User: Which sequence fits this backbone?
């Protein structure tokens, strides 16, 4: 393990905390923005953007009903999802300069924490012993096996472009300096990350977040047995993951090292909203892919990142 | 090297991947046409503007981006081929093969002793297009996709030729374009006849004698 990098001030920088607060508070709005975009593009009014906040509030006031077949793994799943996702958020330099926690190689920790959240959720699904959930778990893990190498390749390309092994550096000032030198590879990495976002956050064309038909679902089907506050945590975890990947995409395309703290946070918020609009546009112009075609899309995204790495190595 | 040329060459390599990834014949042909357009635009940004480069660009666009793709699309329609690409090697595996080919192209390009050292991306792009064309040629089952692979192979040779534009006589380039055009025409006729005779464009069936 590498030691923590030079003692950041005893208290984490205030802008970083403020940016984290913005991310956490804004996350539930992102699926709403995507759904609203989709509705407007198809000529419908659509659900309110704030729908998920209402849903979360409603679920949190409910009682938890447990399937008698489940064990503690089932209860631990949603908690682990939230904790690992928030921990991953601590590693991202959300205000463009400083992450709350940063050490050499934290990019692997970032990918690992996201994988841990998925692992906990899959275990919770399998714990119910339901065949539906088992099927969803199998799909989720199959696609993860293609998506995770892609994420690591993207992060490796960023590390290579900036010569920095911390997320703070990869998405901070060194990245802004790298853009004029390596615009093409960085753009490829950004596009690849956006495709991975669609897969990791179970959005279209990989999954259909609008349906609750078990046969077509990937991610949603694992959490069929969760209810009440547990389900609220799962939903919040999903929204947070979307926000995290969104922040990664925004970080690549809009390095904010040169901006003031308030401006950087405003750019982050605007960027997240733009990513959510992008997701909505993709979902309205593309049909859902056949399950057997999803690995092809993910390998394509990884190939883009690999191509970026080759261009950087040249 | 001008940034515009860099961008064009990157897009050429991406169109290679697009051909590998598409599952429909029409998508394959569209990607090929896009590649032809990019190749046509290249001489304009690489060399100083002159009558030679403009004619070369126009000729390339006309043949590679308009005539040949139209001809292939016509062949699909006429021969009523099934619209799916039928790969012998899966799409995922061929994408990975393609990524390997690009890596190999960069590796070889760094070591290739060339008389006139061209711009950084040109040789790798040429080699990558050549190799991916060969992958398409060998791993796709249909005669049409084999023509596409052959044309990509030729695109790679064209790109390689661009490294020497100053020294290649104009007539030779026209000759190459004409060769390809005739070649594809002949292949088209053969493809069409194969379809008439045995009601399939599956070249595997040619290995067994029919009576």
Assistant:
């Amino acid at each position: 393990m590498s030691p923590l990098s030079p003692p950041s001030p005893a208290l984490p920088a205030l802008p970083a905390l403020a940016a984290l607060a913005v991310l956490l508070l804004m996350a539930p709005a992102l699926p709403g923005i995507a759904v609203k975009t989709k509705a407007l593009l198809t000529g419908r009014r659509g659900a309110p953007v704030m729908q998920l906040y209402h849903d979360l509030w409603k679920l949190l006031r409910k009682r938890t009903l447990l399937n008698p077949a489940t064990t503690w793994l089932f209860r631990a799943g949603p908690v682990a999802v939230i904790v690992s996702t928030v921990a991953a958020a601590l590693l991202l330099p959300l205000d463009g300069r400083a992450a709350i926690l940063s050490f050499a190689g934290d990019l692997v920790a970032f990918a690992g924490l996201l994988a841990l959240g998925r692992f906990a959720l899959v275990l919770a699904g399998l714990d119910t012993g339901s065949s539906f959930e088992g099927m969803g778990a199998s799909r989720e893990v199959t696609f993860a096996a293609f998506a995770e190498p892609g994420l690591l390749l993207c992060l490796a390309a960023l590390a290579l472009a900036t010569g920095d092994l911390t997320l703070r550096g990869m998405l901070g000032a060194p990245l802004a300096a790298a853009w004029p030198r390596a615009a093409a590879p960085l753009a490829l990495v950004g596009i690849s990350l956006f495709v991975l976002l669609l897969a990791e956050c179970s959005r279209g064309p990989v999954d259909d977040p609008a349906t609750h038909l078990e046969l077509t679902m990937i991610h949603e089907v694992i959490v069929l047995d969760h209810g009440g506050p547990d389900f609220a945590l799962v939903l919040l975890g999903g929204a947070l993951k979307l926000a995290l990947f969104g922040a990664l995409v925004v970080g690549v395309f809009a390095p904010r090292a040169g901006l003031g703290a308030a401006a950087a946070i405003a750019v982050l918020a605007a960027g997240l909203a733009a990513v959510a609009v992008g997701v909505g546009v993709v979902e309205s112009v593309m049909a859902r892919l056949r399950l057997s075609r999803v690995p092809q899309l993910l390998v394509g995204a990884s190939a883009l990142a690999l191509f970026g790495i080759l261009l950087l190595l040249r | 090297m001008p940034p515009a040329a860099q961008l064009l060459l990157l897009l050429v390599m991406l169109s290679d991947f697009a051909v590998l990834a598409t599952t429909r014949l029409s998508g394959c042909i569209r990607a090929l046409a896009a590649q032809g357009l990019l190749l046509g635009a290249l001489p304009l940004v690489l060399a100083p503007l002159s009558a030679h480069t403009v004619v070369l660009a126009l000729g390339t666009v006309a043949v590679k981006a308009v005539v040949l793709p139209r001809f292939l699309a016509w062949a699909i329609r006429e021969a009523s081929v099934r619209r799916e690409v039928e790969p012998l090697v899966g799409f995922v595996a061929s994408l990975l093969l393609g990524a390997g080919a690009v890596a190999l192209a960069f590796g070889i390009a760094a070591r290739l002793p060339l008389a006139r050292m061209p711009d950084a991306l040109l040789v790798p792009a040429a080699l990558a297009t050549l190799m991916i064309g060969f992958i398409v040629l060998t791993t796709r089952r249909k005669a049409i996709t084999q023509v596409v692979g052959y044309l990509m192979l030729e695109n790679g040779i064209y790109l390689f030729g661009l490294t020497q534009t100053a020294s290649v006589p104009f007539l030779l380039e026209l000759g190459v374009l004409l060769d390809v055009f005739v070649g594809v025409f002949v292949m088209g006729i053969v493809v069409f006849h194969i379809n008439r005779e045995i009601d399939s464009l599956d070249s595997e069936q040619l290995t067994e004698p029919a009576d």
In short: Chain A touches chain B at residues 184, 293, 295-296, 299-300, 303-304, 306-307, 310-311, 313-314 (CB under 8 Å). Chain A has a mean pLDDT of 89. Residues 14-313 of chain A form one domain.
